[in-house]
Amino acid sequence: MNKLKKLKTALIIFLKYPELGRSKTRLAATVGNENALKVYIELLAHTNLISKELNFDKYLFYDKVTAHKMPWGDDIYHTAYQLESDLGGRMQNAFEQLFDKGYERIVIIGSDCYELTQEIIEEAFNKLNSNKVVVGPAKDGGYYLLGLSQLIPQLFSDVAWSTEEVFSSTIKILKSLNLSYDTTPILSDIDTEDDLTEKLKLLIS
Fold this sequence. Notes:
7-stranded mixed β-sheet, 7 strands, Spore Coat Polysaccharide Biosynthesis Protein SpsA, Chain A, 18% strand, alpha/beta, globular
């Protein structure tokens, strides 16, 4: 951890303020908006739990400008907002904002990976000490985490988002650019009813 303290490091968390009808829409299609909101609130609580003790600057990037904020502590989390764009454009803009602030190692996560842990996030930052990129593959073919030590625009413009090719396309881009990369464990995102863990199922039973 001493090496990490010497580098200016930041964690980006993409999230939505939890509101009925705006949370986990694919999940809501089968379990209803109220149940989807219950699940998302639990996912947000988990995200807070695994990130609040991390010894990095932390930024909550909300999907829209809103007067509402998560009550996680302004002394722990900075507030920022995503650009209106596709997922790639929004992620690139978030990375650009923080690289422009002088950060040298940046990791982005979402708020829908119930298997993600504080240790895996710390592992990702450690891997950035010897790699340009670190990627956390998801079981659905996407990824739940991306870490960069420099901005790589191709990672955000040359990927078909919301497909099972996201992770493999990302790796192909990295290989074509001859950039060093590493990965973290394969985990599951919570997108549909089939993804729910037993604990999350109890919330809507």
